[in-house]
What does this fold into?
Amino acid sequence: MGANFITGTGTDIGKTWLACALLRHWRTQGLRPAAFKPVLSGFDPDQPGASDAGALLAALGREVSATALDAIAPWRYAAPLSPDMAAAGEGRSIDFAELVAFTRRSVSADYRQILVEGVGGVMVPLDDSHTVRDWIAASGLPCVLVTGSYLGSLSHALTALEALAKVGAGVTAIAVNETAGSTVGLAATLQSLARHAGGVPLVAIERSSPQAGIARLAGLLC
Ligand SMILES: Nc1ncnc2c1ncn2[C@@H]1O[C@H](COP(=O)(O)OP(=O)(O)OP(=O)(O)O)[C@@H](O)[C@H]1O
Ligand SMILES: [Mg+2]
It folds into this structure.
């Protein structure tokens, strides 16, 4: 089973973009991948297609229906805040055990390539005692860590790696998603990161020509 959790150094780093690119890549090869975005904050029911779940469904060639949303993104909140805050704002909370059970069930479906997008970065709180890294570890999924090439990204990536290692979460690859307009080069970022990443495969995603990186990452996830 080729299920992977897509996490990142923080919000807006390119998790959904990368997941969609991988899903499209697999589909062009005649494969039938699946994707989940179990926890979704900043969800506008009037514009479901604009959400991460909507983007994943579009990349899968599926309609953005209420049924499809319920199936891939059951924990939806309106406020564009961390999940603990967004849920609390609606007088709700995320049941961590249920979230883990949902994730485990989802990846046991009969698909070869399955992606589960997290929310924000690895240390985003889900409730009073769990963060995203606990979700990854409890789900038993290896993850892809998405980072950027902006000034400061090296420390963010290595800090995230340490945080994942502390809970025993496996990292299949670090995807370095080139930051647009960065003062730091993508190649230089990869060279430095490689010296500190403990042998975790690094994949460069070039802005102007991402396809080679997407194909390489897809190969590592199979
Ligand atoms: N390699 C890329 N090329 C072009 N656009 C990109 C690339 N990576 C990210 N983006 C764009 O950057 C924005 C943020 O990316 P994305 O939504 O994938 O981040 P995210 O990590 O999923 O954020 P969130 O924490 O909200 O889930 C989006 O508009 C996305 O299309
Ligand atoms: Mg996203």
